[in-house]
């Protein structure tokens, strides 16, 4: 018998992921949303033209939960400058720093300096355990940090991300204030998978969050609703299938008579 998941028993923190202010404000009214993340790609897709103005407007609405904004420079010195600027925007700001530059240069030393300076870093685009180890090694013990593992994109390569995330959680225990985040989830099930392996946070888009109402739903009822959906859509489209009577079929009918 399939065990029915229970959303109320989850220990993992759910962060809203996106760059649409109306959706963010709506999610902010939900107590189960414990924070927010965004990135330059999501902001560009949402039509954001002024990075700082958008960030400050978002922070004016989200005042008591962590919000992650990402540096977008591609050299270490400018990344560091941007990180300090972003951190100054609010006490609840987490600074997203990619695990490497576009040339593959590790940002671990930069993260170490920022962490030592009290900047809460959300190290993003992590795909390997070696990257996890490199960051854990440099984090300041007294400064919170987030390690964002792109589990959804790992899964897109045909690799099961669950064992990797489980191992990352174990590695992160060396720094008690470091939290592991399951990034880029593809389906609602990922929330329960991440919770089961002890992941601390998962970022979830509005589209995936809409599926929360289905948690615990009867599979028999869901099956019936799906069949009804196909039937109703076929009728709404006006589809019909007329059987074609071939000469062979006519001959068979004549012989039978």
Structure, described:
By secondary structure, the protein is an alpha/beta fold. It contains twelve helices and eight strands. The protein has helices at residues 21-28, 40-45, 51-61, 76-87, 108-116, 129-138, 151-156, 162-172, 189-196, 206-209, 219-236, 247-256, and strands at 13-17, 33-37, 67-70, 93-98, 121-126, 145-149, 178-182, 201-205. Helix 6 (129-138) links the parallel strand 5 and strand 6 (145-149). The model has no long low-confidence stretch (mean pLDDT 93).
Keywords:
single chain; 257 residues; alpha/beta; TIM Barrel; 2 domains; 8-stranded parallel β-barrel
Please give the count of helices.
12
- CATH architecture term of the largest domain: Alpha-Beta Barrel
In round numbers, the mean pLDDT is: 93
What would you report as the Rg, rounded to the nearest angstrom?
24 Å
The succession of helices and strands, N to C, reads: EHEHHEHEHEHEHHEHEHHH
Biggest sheet overview: 8 strands, parallel, barrel
The proportion of residues in beta strands is 15-25%
Biggest β-sheet: strands ordered side by side in the sheet: 1-2-3-4-5-6-7-8
Question: What is the helix content?
Answer: 40-55%
CATH class of the largest domain: Alpha Beta
Judged by helices, strands and strand pairing, the structural class is alpha/beta
Total individual domains:
2
Instruction: Please provide the count of β strands.
Output: 8
CA-to-CA gap between the ends? 53 Å
């Amino acid at each position: 018998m399939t065990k029915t998941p229970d959303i109320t028993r989850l220990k993992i923190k759910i962060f809203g992921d996106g760059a649409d202010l109306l959706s963010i404000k709506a999610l902010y009214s939900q107590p189960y949303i414990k924070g927010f993340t965004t990135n330059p790609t999501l902001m560009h897709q949402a039509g954001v033209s002024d990075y700082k103005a958008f960030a400050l407007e978002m922070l004016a609405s989200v005042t008591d939960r962590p919000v992650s904004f990402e540096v977008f420079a591609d050299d270490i010195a400018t990344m560091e400058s941007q990180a300090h600027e972003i951190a100054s925007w609010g006490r609840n700001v987490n600074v997203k720093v990619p695990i490497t530059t576009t040339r593959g240069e590790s940002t671990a030393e930069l993260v170490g300096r920022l962490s030592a300076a009290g900047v809460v870093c959300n190290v993003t685009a992590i795909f390997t355990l070696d990257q996890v180890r490199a960051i854990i090694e440099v984090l300041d013990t007294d400064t919170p940090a987030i390690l964002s593992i792109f589990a959804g994109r790992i899964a897109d390569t045909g690799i099961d991300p669950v064992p990797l995330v489980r191992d990352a959680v174990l590695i992160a225990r060396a720094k008690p204030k470091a939290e592991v985040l399951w990034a880029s989830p593809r389906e609602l099930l990922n929330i329960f998978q991440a919770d089961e392996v002890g992941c601390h946070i998962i970022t979830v888009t509005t589209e995936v969050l809409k599926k929360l109402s289905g948690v615990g739903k009867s599979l028999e009822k869901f099956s019936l609703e799906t069949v009804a959906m196909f039937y109703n859509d076929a009728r709404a489209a006006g589809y019909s299938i007329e059987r074609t009577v071939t000469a062979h079929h006519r001959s068979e009918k004549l012989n039978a008579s």
